[in-house]
Structure formats: structure tokens, C-alpha cells
């Protein structure tokens, strides 16, 4: 990141800040920045409005199949951005069931696709908080004559405000750094900072202009990360002061409106685009049902406009994702163990907060920017006699960095929940720090480590932003292959891209469903 920033201030080996006024003096730069903020803001509002009913249904009501439904709602968050972009294109584009609405390549389509990912973030973050709120204040308000709506607005909503604000900050962060969705659905007209950096780098080789534009993204991301960290901390304090998780209630007639909103969200926002993608991958241009698009994926590679073959891309993606997940787990466990400690010194406490923010940086800084930065710095790094930019080894490194914050956020609540007295007792009985780690901390992680591993693998498998910078011809991952097929005009290319998107989505969803069965902590923090 530092090298990327320096590129915007250096020309011909000398300090030259003239690129900054040159880039920020262009009308398109401010149009792209405004478009980024507007897309992220609208997606945040929509995600919160739809995520609150989902949080209530999944965390306040008790009904058969709730755990399975929670698992399914996690899938949209980890689906590859390429798959979601292609799914909404299949739904809204030419030949799609909603083609008549004219929403293809539109602002509304981009915002809806961003909300597709982030309703889950709101539901999990707010739901885990909501499940631990004390109901006695609401009951007191009802006894004093307040109706259900007034009691919710005057008591519950203010109590939920830290969690809602924290979730909103995260949604804004994710939406402002979205790449694959905006690239596929927005095009040049609705470009954001992320896609503009990619366009300047790949199409125009304007590295300095891209680096300068990254400064705007750093400002947006830095503000969102700071707000998110502060609000998350206040949310954690509020949970600690609250009661134990309440006893869930059975759905009643008064819950019907909320359940209807939640059902409409799942069916229209989540299920409909995926169903449209699956249906169109099984049909020809004249409407006949067929498997020829899937057959094209395993046929002779010369029939598709890509270098290499799709089976080779799938195998490469699985291998790279496995390595990236292993790296993310090793680093994530170490970092989570460090961040779970609560030092008494204020200096150390501030240092921990700073370290926490640095760990979250790969999640906030766009994957495209991360890939761009790796390209700038990995020319014989640390004196190594190998140019890593020409090696495929950079891809699992980049993917591990992208997955690392999710691993930390999955393991950290479990480690922070361990009673410190257990560690003190073990130490007083003669256990050294490594023995305490082996006998207390690691066993407590248990199945949550499996969930974190599933998160890391699914995210790495579908990573597109940084990978699109780092892949080499003939050694492309499945998300990159799908994007190439969708954007190519060759006969059969679009159908094969749809089929490839279905396979990629099925792989990521299967991994996530398997991993979510290992969840033991439902506090909602990713």
C-alpha cells in the first residue's frame, strides 16, 4: 500500500506531486468518486432495511429449520462476485425474465446486487446482538401502555443502534470496494473507484493515475474502517452489559408482516437471480433445454475463446484456494490469539487497537488495489533472486490476505469468551505459556476453526479482484475464466460462462454450507 501511494508522488525517480491535481482535476474522477459513494450509500440503506427483518426472524423467532436457513443466508456473502454479477445479468439482461424492466446495466441493478451480498452482514451482526438484549425494558414499556411498534421504536431500536451502525459501516465498506459486480453490471457508465483503477492500469497502463485514484479510495476506506472499529467496540461493550440470550418465541400473527418481508427478500433478492442463472445455463438461445453449455466446459479447449481448459482452471482454483486457506488459518490463529489478550497498559491497549485495524486493512482496501500493490513491490522482494510477479505464487498470497480478516473475526469472539481465570489457574499449576495454549486456547477454538477454514477456502476460491491482476496466460482461475467467457462475443461463449458460473457458485456454496454446520458461536461477527 505504501509503494502504491508513493507511485502517485514520484515521477522519473523524483518527488513530483503534480499527478494529484492532474487526476483530481478531471471531471470523470469526481464522477467516479461520487458514483462510488452513492452506490455504497444506497446499498447500505437497502441492506439495513432488508437485514433487520432477517435478523428478527433468524435470531428472535424459533421454528423448525432455522439453523439450516441461517446457513443458507450465509451463502450470498461468500458467493464469488463474478457469479453474482453473472446471475443478475442473466436475470435483468437480454433474454432474462426481467428484461422488460430495463434494469440491465443500470444503477438499480448494481445496488440490488450489492445488497444481495450485504443483507447477510446486517442479519448476522444485528441478529447476534439482538439475541442478547434484555426484554424487561420492552415489557415495562408495554405494561405502561406502549404498543408493539412504539415499544420497538422507543426501546429496542435505540438499544440496537450500535449494532446497526456497525453493520452499516461494514456494508458501506464492502460496497465501496466492490469490483466484480460493478465491472459486470455497471460497465463504464456506472464505474466505481475500483473498476476505474483496473481500467487505468490494464487498458491504459496509467499506473500513476491509478495510484493517485487509490488515494481517494484510501480516504473512503479509512473513514469506514475507523467508524466500524469504534462502533464494533461500543457494540461489544453493550453486549457485555446485557443479559444472557433470551428464550426465542414461536412466530405469531403479529410477526406475519416481518416474516413476509424476510420471505420476499430471500425469494426475490437471493433466490430469483440464482434461479435465473441456473435456468439460462440449461437453455439454448431459442429456449430449448440442453446440457450443451456444460458439455462445452469439458470439450476440446479450442471450442472456447480462452487459453487453457476449464477443468484445468477448476483444478488450479482448488489448489490455490487450499494453499491460501492454509496460510490464512495459520496467520489468523496467531493474530486472533494476540488480539484476544487484554493488557492493562493503556499504551498496549492502543497498540492492540492499531494492530487490529492493520489486520483489517486487506478487507477494507480493495482487492484490486491489493493486487496492484503486489505487482509494484514483488520484483525480487527482500533480495530474493526471483521476480515473483511472473510466478503464480503471488495469487495464494493475495487470496490469503483477503481471507485473513474473516478468519480473525471468526476466531476472535471465541478466544475473547474464554474465562481468563482458566489461564491463570493453569499457570499457577506450573503450565508454561505453550502448555496453556495447547490445553486451553486451541481446544476452545474447536469447531469454530473449521468454520474459519471454510470461510477462507470459499472466499479464496471465488476471489476475482486481486487474482485478475496476477494470473498468467494459460494459468487462469475459474472466476477469471468465467469473466472472460461472459464478456466474449464468440458463439457459445456466453452459455459456457453461465455454466461455469453455476459450477463456481455450487463449489463455494457447498464449502460454506459444510463449514457453517461447524458453527458453535452465533454472535454474528464475521
From TrEMBL:
Keywords: Cell inner membrane, Cell membrane, Membrane, Transmembrane, Transmembrane helix, Transport. Residues 33-226, 314-515 form the ABC transmembrane type-1 domain. Pfam families: BPD_transp_1. The keyword Magnesium does not apply. InterPro entries: MetI-like, MetI-like_sf. The chain crosses the membrane at residues 37-59, 71-95, 107-131, 164-187, 207-227, 256-279, 312-339, 359-379, 391-412, 448-471, 491-515. Its main location: membrane. It is a multi-pass membrane protein. It is found in: Cell inner membrane; Cell membrane. It comes from the Bacteria. Belongs to the binding-protein-dependent transport system permease family. This is Iron ABC transporter permease. It comes from Leucobacter rhizosphaerae.
